[in-house]
Task: structure prediction
Amino acid sequence: MPRWAGWTALLAALLVAGCGGSGPVDVQTADAVPLRLARDDPAKLLGSVLGAYVGPDGGDPVEAGLLSGEGDDLVLHPQRLPEAARAALADANGDGTIDWDELAAMLEATYVDARGLPPTLDALRQQADYTAGEPDWFTVEVDGVMTAARRRIHVPLDALREAMHTFASSGSLDYPAGTWIVGEHAIDGDVVETTVKHRRPDGYWDFAVYGPDGALAPATQTEPRPLRVPTQCTGCHLGQRLFEPEKSFPGEASDGPFGPRAIYVPDAWRSAEATALFDEHRRRDDGVLGLYATLYAGRLLAAREAGDLDADGRRLLDTLGL
Result:
């Protein structure tokens, strides 16, 4: 977008909004409202959360006319929002702008319905039967910082291998559109909630939480704190903060205040070579916090060392240069 176009949109927004701070703005009728988000990389954040309202496949909110401007000078065009989302949006503090708390309130009230995610786990399993296990799914158990529950994470093997091939050719670990990543949270062996990521065609992920009844829920419920969808999901997945136990891998992580922090895999999978190659947790190419490519490559390397690696595995390791 030309620089002058962004400033023109911003000027128009300031005029509509009473110069962005002289009084409240009615987002139900305003054509343009300045955003004051005070967030790192606001364009990337808005690509994720506002792109979710562009259509079933997501999309670019700038190209869709929902967002204009550049840098920190971004402008929302609320008339381009779906009616339900616009009805849930308000300049609650009356300052003539939309801040992050005001936008988050709209997202948390309307995002799940806007995305049309499977309403129950039974419906999800009709699209992605993560309970099928090997050879279709790669599963790993983790104790981490997100929840005090044990997480059992399921990644479709075809999608994981495709992402690894993409990495070999482009240097970016990108999962294909349509990928489901499912995390079951278990306490004393019982699944008490399930978190889900679904890769959109626009390159961002949708997020969902299913409660103990198997129905969509607005937030996680396990200790140490509830995490709301999608605002607190994107905060971690699009950010740069490192988390345990991934941060210390292939070494062991220290326990945290709510218990152990550990990735439960055989020691033979803890490949320093694979960890260095992908640098998966720090790079976060695709907004994925886990070490699934690293762990799968470690499994293949261990199988090769044991003389038990199939032809597909050998070809993948050769492609990766491992």
